[in-house]
Amino acid sequence: MKKGKVLAILLVTGLISTALVGCGKKDDVFRIGVSQFVEHAALDASYKGFVDALAEAGYVDGEKIKIDYQNAQGDQSNTSTIATKLVNDNNDLILAIATPSAQAVANATKDIPVLVTAVTDPYDAGLVESNEVPGGNISGTSDLTPVKKQFELLKQLIPDAKKVAILYTSSETNSKIQAKIAREAAAELGLETMDATVSNTNEIQQVVESLIGKVDVIYAPTDNLIAKAMPTVTMVSNANGLPVICGEKGMVEVGGLATYGIDYYELGKLTGEQAVKIIEGKATTEDMPIGYLADEDCELTINEEVAKQLGIEIPADLK
Predict the structure, then answer these.
(1) What is the 8-class DSSP label of residue 94?
(2) Which SS3 state, helix, strand or coil, does residue 217 take?
(3) pLDDT tens string 40-57
(4) Domain extents in the chain
(5) For the chain, how are helix, strand and coil distributed in percent, rounded to 5?
(6) Predicted confidence band at 297 (pLDDT cuts at 50, 70, 90)?
(7) Where are the beta strands (DSSP E) in the chain?
(8) What is the mean pLDDT of residues 212-231?
(9) CATH number 3.30.360.10 is the correct assignment for the domain at 147-262+299-318
(10) Under 8 Å CB-to-CB from 78, ≥6 apart: which residues?
């Protein structure tokens, strides 16, 4: 083969390779993969807050960034499938909403930066080396709720309560941590507790029915399965005069009695602000502390309609 033909072939091959590389990375768009465990008010709000924080910083989906949103619909096996997809798609950043999704993404990649949100304790969930200095490819925000204040609210609204059922999913790390804190908070207030655990949605109605006549009130933390099924919980509990103190606002809005909790939209915004720092190269997950909302970002929510139905008088200082 003549030297000129060899050079021509090499030149064409180089041009094709360059074109293919250009197709792999389109216009320097920053790609963000999102894995959300299940749809319910709190997690939906955290995702919206995340997207809005990015937009406020000039990163609008479809322009400077491209977001691939995936929802596992509460199925644990789906979280692994989604995590693998987001990693194989070579996203530049992954957002994992709720502990099951976060753990699945953590197992799928040690290289791509990952932000988690709506995770009570990232360290306890095995996601980071410490909440102060994560030390790896994962950081984010915690939705640790003011459980002690929620139990103080319980005592204000139901002063005669003596026994509390803690309703949560036995397999959810997020919930087990909150249940432990709840037992401690209840003990400080002289309240007796019992665990009422479920492993899937089909068990919820039966478990709640089994509590009638055994406890004075139910405490439901920010458990994803329970939050999704709150209409079922309160259909049984309210009809039998059993109030439910909840971990977050969305659960109150669908039949719970009250909560003093964090604002998940603001939590999502805080996570979005972390993402902006990563996009702009101003921080890395290794040394970015887990973020928490301040006390002033917590809010009191009381379902007055439910209070009336249950014959509970709301103290003047809570109105």
Answers:
(1) E
(2) strand
(3) 999 999 999 999 999 999
(4) 27-143+263-294, 147-262+299-318
(5) 45, 20, 35
(6) confident
(7) 30-36, 65-71, 93-97, 114-119, 138-142, 163-169, 192-198, 217-220, 244-246, 258-262, 298-302
(8) 96
(9) no
(10) 72
